[in-house]
Amino acid sequence: MPTTVETKKLKIGRISYLNTLPFYFELFQTGDVCVTQNGYPAQINQWMQEGAIDIAPISSLEYGRHPDAYYLLPGVSIGARRHSGSVLLFSREPIERLKSQPIAVSEESYSSQILLKILLAKRFHSDHQFIPLSGTIDSMLEAAPACLAIGDKALFYRSSNFCYKYDLSEWWYEWTGLPFCFAVWAVRREACQENAAAVRSFSDQLKVSLERNLNQLPVLIEKELNLSIADEKYALVYSYLSQLSNHLNEEMQTGLKRFFELACEINAIEKVPPLEFIQEFAA
Length: 283
Known about the structure:
This is Chorismate dehydratase. The protein is an alpha/beta fold. It has helices at residues 21-24, 41-50, 60-65, 95-98, 110-123, 137-143, 151-156, 168-176, 189-194, 196-214, 217-225, 234-243, 250-265, 278-282, and strands spanning 10-15, 34-39, 55-59, 70-80, 87-91, 103-106, 130-133, 146-150, 164-167, 180-188, 244-245.
């Protein structure tokens, strides 16, 4: 009599930002063996470390800090070749006049903090105290002359007073000529070992979902966000989702490795990790 093996449910982390919609929209079908848990990037990283979730888009720095804990899902990432639109430094002063003044930084993403630290130190040759804060961008700018904001909060922010706005991935591209990878899709190694077939199936399903949704962004925006082309936010959201780089191709991997090298130089990670993918585990 054949033995029946019960497949464990995969626990999928979901970042609650617009930039993940091309992955998640209509990703799950009836009967799929998975459950989801929503949070912002720092929460997702923590839950992956604790084993509360199995697969998620984690910050690139989280992978760099704990490479032995994860395998990467091939072909998918969250990044930008030039403008990210949602990882922004807002400042009351131009960058040249900020000098060593403190900067308020979002507590939602550690990768963006390290990217900013690298750019300020290596490109602009300045050193700043970072003040981790939550709250609105206006409240952060009251606490410091500049602030780093990410996600939808940064994308939709409109200041009532004049302020400078700098896109970190644009700074990165101007300096390195490479795209920047903010997040990689990863699976905990234990989950991969326990449920390899389900992990590979989810990885394939994720890539199919991404390609389908990138080819039908108007449908995604209308159904998921209830926005029509007549809505004020429609053009901004469409442009934003169109300009993101969602593929972990060779160029994106080169940019990711360069980020790891620079993060290592400022002691944000111990060493430059290899990029290990689930198909290498399967082999």
